[in-house]
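Quick one, C-alpha cells below. Sequence please?
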C-alpha cells in the first residue's frame, strides 16, 4: 500500500490519503483499518450514524488524535506526529468557537496576525473572506451580536483566510434550524467551488451529504461500506446498510441461484425470480434486492395497467396509505415479510383517488434497470453492541 502512494506522480497525489488507519479506545475499535483517497479540491463527505467513527477519522486528519496503526498523508506527506497547528488543515466545528471579546474582523484576522503576516495583507485577506461569506458589513460587531448562521459564516471565513490545503468540517450546520441549514448548504458548496480547496465534511444527515458532496464515504461501525458520488450511493447502494441509511430501505431478501456473466439470477422470498447485475455476489449467497420507492409502480391486482417496460413485478397487500402532500406513500407487504414503500406522485387528483387503499391486493412493478442487488452489512444487533460499547468507553474516558 505504502509503495503505491510513493509511486503515483505528483499531479495525481491525493489531497488526503488514509492507509490502513485504525484507532482504538482501550479495546474498542472506533476506526477499523481504513483506506481512503480524497482528491485535490474535492468536496468529500464522511456520512454515517452516531458513533460510526466519522469524527474520529476527521480528528486523525486534523492531528487531534493519532492513529494506533496506519498512515495519514496530506498532499503525499506522512503527517504522523505533526501537531494540529502545524498541519496544512483548518477545522470548522459545530460550536463556532469564536472569541467573544473580539470583533468579527479580529476573529478572522487572529490566525494571520499570530503568523506575523503584514498588516496590509491581513486587512486585504480579512475583507476578501468576509465579503465572500457576505459579512463585511458586520465586520465590527461582536459574535454575540450575530445570528447562529452568521457566526458559523465567520468561523468559516476565519478558517479559510489561513489558506489551508484541506478544510475539515465537523457537522458545521448541526446547530442551525432546517431552513438556515439548507441555505448554508448551498452557500458552503459555492464557497468550496470558488476557493477550490479540499473539503472533508462530517455529517449524519444523508440529505445534506447528497446535496453538497462530490463523493460520499458511508461509514458503519468503524468501516467504510461504500465510497461513491451521491447519485451512485442513492441509485446503486452496494450493501443493506447503505441502502437503508440513504433513503428508505426497500429490501427484498433472496438467494443467488445462478450467474450469467455480469448478471445474477436471484430467487426472492417474495415469490419471484429476478435478474440483475451480480455486484460481485456468488452463487448460493444470501442478498437483498432493492428498488427505490419512487421507481415502483402500483396497480390493483389483475388489472394489468403497468407501464410498458415494467417487466418485473411482485404481488403484495397494501398495509397503509398516507397522504404526504406532493405524493402518497403506500406500504405494501410481500410474501416472506418484506415491506416495500411506494411513493406515488400526486400529479393528478383522479389518479390519486383511484390508488388502492389498505387491505387491497396489488402488483408492484418496475423496469429492470431499477433493481439492484446488495450484500448483507452485518446484523443490527452487532451495530447496537458496537455503539453501546463505544458510549461506555467514552464515559470511562471522560470520568
Ligand atoms: P457522532 O456523530 O455522534 O459524533 P461519530 O461517527 O462522529 O459520531 P466518533 O465520535 O468518531 O463517532 O466516535 C466513534 C466511537 O468511538 C464512538 O462509539 C465513541 O463513543 C468512541 N469514542 C470516541 N472518542 C472516544 C474517546 N476519547 N474515548 C473513548 N471512546 C471514544
Amino acid at each position: 500500500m505504502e509503495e503505491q502512494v510513493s509511486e503515483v506522480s505528483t499531479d495525481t497525489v491525493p489531497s488526503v490519503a488514509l492507509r490502513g488507519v485504525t484507532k482504538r479506545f482501550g479495546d474498542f475499535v472506533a476506526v477499523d483499518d481504513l483506506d481512503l483517497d480524497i482528491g485535490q479540491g474535492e468536496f468529500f463527505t464522511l456520512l454515517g450514524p452516531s458513533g460510526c467513527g466519522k469524527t474520529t477519522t476527521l480528528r486523525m486528519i486534523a492531528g487531534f488524535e493519532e492513529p494506533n496503526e496506519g498512515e495519514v498523508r496530506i498532499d503525499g506527506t506522512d503527517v504522523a506526529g505533526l501537531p494540529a497547528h502545524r498541519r496544512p488543515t483548518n477545522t470548522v466545528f459545530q460550536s463556532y468557537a469564536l472569541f467573544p471579546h473580539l470583533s468579527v474582523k479580529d476573529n478572522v484576522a487572529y490566525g494571520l496576525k499570530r503568523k506575523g503576516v503584514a498588516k496590509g495583507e491581513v486587512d486585504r485577506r480579512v475583507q476578501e473572506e468576509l465579503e465572500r461569506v457576505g459579512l463585511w458589513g458586520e465586520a465590527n460587531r461582536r459574535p454575540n451580536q450575530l445570528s447562529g448562521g452568521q457566526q458559523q459564516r465567520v468561523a468559516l471565513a476565519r478558517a479559510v483566510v489561513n489558506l489551508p490545503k484541506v478544510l475539515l468540517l465537523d457537522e458545521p450546520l448541526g446547530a442551525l434550524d432546517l431552513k438556515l441549514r439548507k441555505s448554508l448548504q448551498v452557500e458552503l458548496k459555492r464557497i468550496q467551488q470558488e476557493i477550490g480547496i479540499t473539503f472533508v465534511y462530517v455529517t449524519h444527515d444523508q440529505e445534506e451529504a447528497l446535496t453538497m458532496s462530490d463523493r460520499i464515504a458511508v461509514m458503519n461501525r468503524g468501516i467504510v461500506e461504500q465510497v461513491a458520488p451521491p447519485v451512485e450511493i442513492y441509485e446503486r447502494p452496494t450493501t443493506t446498510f447503505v441502502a437503508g441509511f440513504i433513503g428508505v430501505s426497500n429490501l427484498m431478501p433472496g438467494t443467488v441461484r445462478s450467474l450469467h456473466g455480469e448478471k445474477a439470477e436471484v430467487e426472492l422470498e417474495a415469490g419471484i425470480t429476478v435478474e440483475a447485475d451480480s455486484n460481485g455476489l456468488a452463487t448460493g449467497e444470501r442478498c437483498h434486492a432493492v428498488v427505490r420507492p419512487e421507481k415502483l409502480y402500483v396497480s390493483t391486482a389483475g388489472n394489468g395497467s403497468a407501464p410498458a417496460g415494467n417487466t418485473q413485478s411482485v404481488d403484495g397487500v397494501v398495509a397503509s396509505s398516507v397522504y404526504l402532500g406532493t405524493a402518497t406513500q403506500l406500504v405494501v407487504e410481500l410474501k416472506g415479510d418484506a415491506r416495500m414503500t411506494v411513493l406515488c406522485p400526486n400529479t393528478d387528483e383522479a389518479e390519486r383517488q383511484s390508488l388502492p387503499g389498505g387491505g387491497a391486493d396489488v402488483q408492484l412493478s418496475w423496469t429492470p434497470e431499477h433493481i439492484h442487488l446488495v450484500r448483507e452489512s452485518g446484523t443490527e444487533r452487532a451495530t447496537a453492541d458496537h455503539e453501546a460499547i463505544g458510549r461506555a468507553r467514552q464515559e470511562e474516558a471522560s470520568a
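The pocket of adenosine-5'-triphosphate is lined by residues 25, 30, 48, 50-56, 204, 387, 390-391, 393-394, 397 (CB under 6 Å). Residues 1-10, 379-386 have pLDDT under 50 and may be disordered.
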